[in-house]
Amino acid sequence: MNHPHPDLGLPSALVKGGLRIVALGGLGEIGRNMTVFETKGKLLIVDCGVLFPEDTQPGIDLILPDFSYIRDRLDDVVGVFLTHGHEDHIGAVPYLLRERGDIAIYGSALTLALVTAKLKEHRISPLTREVREGGHEDVGPFELEFVAVNHSIPDALAVVINTDAGRVLATGDFKMDQLPLDGRITDLRTFARLGEEGVDLFMVDSTNADIPGFTPSEREIMPALNRVIGSTKRRVIVASFSSHVHRVQQVIDTAAIHNRKVIFIGRSMVRNMKIAQDMGYLTIPPGIVMDAKDLDSFDDNVVLICTGSQGEPMAALSRMANGDHQIRVGEGDTVILASSLIPGNENSVFRVINELTRFGAKVVHKANAMVHVSGHAAAGELLYCYNIVKPRYVMPIHGEWRHMKANAELAIQAGVPRSNALIIENGVVVDLIDHEAQVVGSVPCGFVYVDGQSIGDITEASLKDRRILGEEGFISVIVVIDSQSGKIVAGPDIHARGFNEDMALFDDVKLKIEKALAAAVAEGINGTHQLSQIVRKTVGGWVGGEHRRKPMIVPVVIEV
């Protein structure tokens, strides 16, 4: 397991009455947000999300926060608070509850509904505690207060954590849309009141900290949606996150203006929109939403809302692009990608755009039309927050290094002393003692890979093996030798995959292997392990020298 800061040792025991803060994910990366707070021997977890894999992590489905720091202390956990219902904040909850099933989960109504639906797929029924903005909750020794924030999903909350050591305000993901569709704005009046009373540590979303100005309002995409849907002759297909209720609301409203029926496509989209409608977050005019099986009876007068805006291979849009979905895309259709481009997904997204375009569809995305606005506050909004809250210490969260650094610089511009802006990584331990914060050490904290049914069995070494297999190929060499004389009885038998298939190539190296083995046996080396290493070295040297390749080489020497 990698120790992120070898120069920072393990922290000493927490001072009585102090508050310890350790992020196990979400710092230096966009995803797997999870922070552990500790006071008086009890632990509070804020968020528990997943990170989606990059191309360099072949075969991996999800990446989880590393629970090893709290694994021996699961009984001390008094609760998990979820700021909002996005995967990068709730996706790892099932894996945490597998380790202890009765941890109480706190969150707003929609957040709990989404996490409960997710847990049902894992056959877990959680203990939930619904909270709402303006509410207070004593969770063990932590006194929590919840504050409304605006984000790209309804019902998001910031959290105030009051302890004897001081007060922490953690924003979760947020922006400051001043004209949100649901009228629920980020509650700056409460931020200001908290600032007046004194905020010791302000933990702030960094995702858009390096973007100047203000994030546009969600409703600014309405004209573009209206124009695109109005000018399309045939079907309109909109791809969005299955949790972006406000985006879907705007698509439904625009479809209604143009007398088009709406059909939800994709399991998570159908499930989440039913939850949102049942709970009153999504308003659907009567008779507008139809079932996918009735698609053919409406001809082209429809708007389909589906998942797959990130190019995910199993999602509806990718399958349409590959032509293996019952919905065929063609001339006259328009596809709208109403979403961001999450770093690392560019290639998959452009592939989907290319394939849809090849079928004759027009593809509209944020690069060529105003069909997406971000869910995160840009630099201008963050500066407002720093001036209103006037925190003593700032800890940027939720972002890569460049985002966290930009966020810290904003806080410093707004008057936070440079020494009080803590840019840290996962596993670094911050103690707040009597309103003073400092870095006191770090704990081992790695990546936990989910691969099919296995969790945490895949290591960096096995990923490296997969990359080598994928990029450089594979050669196996089998040699049978006589255990008395050391002479080769059979072989060398060479098999190659992902390599030049011309077997005559390997005649040169067979002679080299025979010579090397004969020389080794003459020197008295006869263990199969040592001999197989000689085979590996000989083949490796030859492949490297002749072909400039580094395949995986698996030598097998058998004695008879």
Task: Give the helices and strands, then pairings.
Blueprint: E1 19-25, E2 34-39, E3 42-46, E4 62-64, H1 68-71, E5 77-81, H2 87-90, H3 93-97, E6 104-107, H4 109-121, E7 127-130, E8 136-139, E9 142-148, E10 157-163, E11 166-170, H5 188-197, E12 201-205, H6 222-231, E13 236-239, H7 245-257, E14 261-265, H8 267-278, E15 289-290, E16 302-306, H9 316-321, E17 334-337, H10 346-358, E18 362-364, H11 379-389, E19 393-397, H12 401-413, E20 428-433, E21 436-442, E22 448-451, E23 454-455, H13 460-472, E24 474-481, E25 488-497, H14 507-522, H15 528-547, E26 552-559
Helix pairs in contact: 4-8, 6-7, 11-12, 14-15
Describe what you observe in this structure:
With 560 residues, the protein is an alpha/beta fold. It contains 15 helices and 26 strands. It has an eight-stranded mixed beta sheet with strand order 7-6-5-3-2-1-20-21. Strands 8-9-10-11-12-19 form a six-stranded mixed beta sheet, with helices on one face. Helix 4 (109-121) runs antiparallel to helix 8 (267-278), helix 11 (379-389) packs across helix 12 (401-413) and helix 14 runs antiparallel to helix 15 (528-547). It is globular. It starts with 18 loop residues before the first strand and ends with a strand. The mean pLDDT is 87.
Supply the key terms.
560 residues; alpha/beta; 6-stranded mixed sheet; 15 helices; 24% strand
Secondary structure class reads: alpha/beta
Q: How many β-strands, per DSSP?
A: 26
Q: Helical segment tally?
A: 15
Helix content: 25-40%
**Widest β-sheet, arrangement of strands:** 7-6-5-3-2-1-20-21
Mean pLDDT: 87
Low-confidence stretches: none
The coarse overall form would be globular
Please describe the biggest sheet, giving its number of strands, its sense, and whether it closes into a barrel. Answer: 8 strands, mixed
Strand content: 15-25%
Rg result: 28 Å
Q: N-to-C terminal Cα separation, in Å?
A: 41 Å
